[in-house]
Design goal:
mainly alpha, DNA-binding, TetR/AcrR family transcriptional regulator, HTH_TetR, HTH-type_TetR-like_transc_reg
């Protein structure tokens, strides 16, 4: 059996994917670069050579998650440019719990100036993108973002999204939310 040698870019992508999983599980403070290296199947010095510091790797992970949210919103708006379609896209992202948890860890680590600057900028870009794609008012966008944040927290607590723990209060709360209207099936 022959192994295919990965390029540095491909290996960097594997490390970044492992970082999202690790940071999603333990947060910025609780994650060590050697854990990320182990998950990626590389050495810890290689992780540092690729990304510099743990902080830079965390920022790359947070940026990756925000890129995924933006991409999902753009794709949804390509089918139907309204808040319902973007809500459906976000609901699909809930299946990748670690992505949303990395966002929460980014918010929590925002007291660190370098992390806070990036997280605030990216959150603002997502807010602006929602308004740009849908033409929603500031109030409509605030409600959309607030619902998304609640869903993010509930997904992190494992009471929303796939494989959620069924709890009456969570089911009641989810039942009161207008998450989205499904997009029409593609032909």
């Amino acid at each position: 059996m022959t192994r295919t040698r990965l390029t540095a870019a491909e290996r960097g992508e594997e490390v970044l994917q492992a970082a999202v999983v690790a940071f999603g599980a333990a947060g910025y403070q609780g994650t060590k670069t050697d854990e990320i290296a182990r998950l990626a199947g590389v050495s810890q010095p290689y992780v540092i050579r690729l990304f510099g510091t743990k902080q830079q790797l965390f920022l790359a992970s947070a940026n990756r998650v925000c890129d995924r949210v933006e991409q999902a919103f753009r794709e949804a708006a390509g089918q139907r440019a309204d808040l319902d379609s973007l809500g459906g896209a976000y609901e699909r992202l809930m299946a990748e719990r670690e992505l949303l948890v990395v966002l929460l860890h980014g918010f929590a680590a925002s007291a660190d100036p370098a992390i806070g600057d990036v997280v605030r900028e990216r959150f603002g870009k997502i807010y602006d993108l929602v308004r740009e794609l849908t033409g929603a008012s500031a109030e409509e966008t605030r409600q959309f973002v607030a619902t998304g944040m609640l869903l993010t927290v509930m997904t992190a607590m494992q009471v929303a999204g796939p494989d959620s723990i069924p709890l009456p209060w969570a089911e009641e709360l989810l039942g009161t939310m207008k998450i989205h209207q499904p997009l029409p099936e593609a032909d």
